[in-house]
Amino acid sequence: MTGVVTKNAAGTLAYVGIDDTDNLESRGTGYRARQLAARIMDAGLGVVLGATRHQLFVSPDIPYTSHNSAACLAVAMHGEASTPELVGLTRRFLAGESAPGSDAGFCVRRDPALPAALLEFGRRAKEEVLTRREAHSLAAACVCHLEGVTGDHGGVIGALAAVGLRCGGADGRFIWVRGIRELAGRTLPLARLLRATGIERLETREGLPVTDADSTIALGDWPRPILRLHRAVLLVENCNDLSNADWRVVAKDYIKQF
Hints:
Radius of gyration: 18 Å
Order of helices and strands: EHEEHEHHEHEEHEEEEEH
Shape: globular
Distance between the termini: 20 Å
Strand order of the largest sheet: 5-4-1-3-2-6
CATH class of the largest domain: Alpha Beta
């Protein structure tokens, strides 16, 4: 995936943002995003290229469950699949899977152009208290389908923000990308890692690329790429111990800042 493009091997890209699907006892929105990704692919609507987590503003004036994060899925739609089909599946999924007491909302955008106002809304949602009225007004102007499903529909704010931030290509970390969770704990050559997963690039903390195809990568128990320049980028550091790997994934606490 190279960012906000109109075509790839599977078809037109669509973005699905979801937010506020949980309560204090339930699984979080990240888990629901992974479930939704499976539902979309099982339904034959397209191939989910990845799901990203986006941290939003934490304020006593914003009702949230634990961390106030939203999620966005990038979907390479099959040619015959329509936006209304994707909207309907997402609506049914959230209605059935969102936790009691949640205020779930979702956003679907299937347009190659990223309006500056949509990206700015995402950035503002990381720093300000926004309103549902603002979200719906912007969604209408930017040709986004924005809909509340449960509770007071407050999740529409985060859902729209997540789409803006994901389309911007430089915010958040991946909570799902093909193959990476299945390979946790393994040590693999770089070439095999890139073939087996949706990871597109390896970089050091300083942003230097790791390109030697034969170099080995220790994935550890929490490999999570970040979204950087519209790519799934795994951050690594040199192994300075006696391990059998050349590189290892940076510590979980460091990745969590994204």
